[in-house]
Specification:
The chain has 227 residues and is of the alpha+beta class. 53% of the residues lie in helices and 8% in strands. A hairpin with a 2-residue loop joins strand 1 and strand 2.
């Protein structure tokens, strides 16, 4: 019997749960042949035993095609999308986030095992639409309300949201460091309380802080380099 395989060509064809599942497998496994098989199984939705029946060169072609899909230099921010007939919208105004929204988002946004919970904070069903594309979303009742639903969110939406927060965090970082570097009074306070006994100049310390923070917020490498 001839096996028919549907190979995704766009990130929107892949669910977040599929990506999370593959990340867990790839995290502690360096067997390239096994990862190739799991990549085809996971993203093409077929059984592992069926992958074993595919010609070796075809498996390599499929994984190469999938790899190109992930090797994207930029990801577009998507503020609205539909899931199972329900339209979800991104938080209209981040400055109006509640304490509960902020703490939950801060807990989950950098953890790919729990990124679906962060997505449940950021995106909720649209309850009202206004002029010029404006809208209101459902009141936040905890990430558990839509966390399982968000496992089915298309990957392009998830990546776009992560890039959005990377860019936002990067701009906040730049503004903070510029303020500290240019504020003489703040430099004096830092020197007196943190650096006075270390013999480290404020300028060198700020450069070190900049390098460290930039490393911490570095955009995750979405390319599946292990396969």
């Amino acid at each position: 019997m001839k096996l028919e395989i549907s190979v995704p060509t766009e990130l929107k064809e892949i669910k977040l749960a599929q990506y999370q599942a593959f990340l867990k497998i790839a995290k502690d496994n360096e067997d390239e042949e096994f990862l190739n098989q799991k990549m085809v199984q996971t993203f093409c939705n077929i059984d592992l035993k069926d992958v074993a029946e595919i010609r070796f060169k075809d498996v390599l072609e499929i994984t190469a095609s999938l790899g190109k899909m992930f090797d994207v230099k930029s990801h577009k921010f998507i503020n609205r999308f539909k899931l199972s007939g329900v339209e979800f919208g991104f938080i209209p105004d981040l400055e109006d986030m509640s304490f509960g929204e902020y703490t939950d988002l801060d807990t989950y946004i950098g953890d790919w095992d729990n990124i679906h919970k962060a997505m449940a904070v950021l995106y909720r069903p649209i309850t009202k639409k206004g002029l010029n594309g404006t809208y209101e979303i459902e009141k936040y009742n905890g990430s558990i309300t839509y966390s399982d639903v968000m496992k089915h969110a298309p990957l392009d939406v998830v990546f776009g949201a992560n890039v959005f927060f990377y860019n936002l965090g990067n701009e906040l970082l730049k503004s903070t460091l510029t303020y500290l570097e240019n504020n003489k009074a703040m430099q004096t306070i830092l020197q007196q309380h943190n650096l006075g006994n270390d013999g480290v100049g404020i300028h060198q310390s700020m450069l070190l802080l900049k390098e460290t923070l930039q490393d911490l917020i570095e955009l995750p490498n979405y390319r599946l380099t292990s396969v």
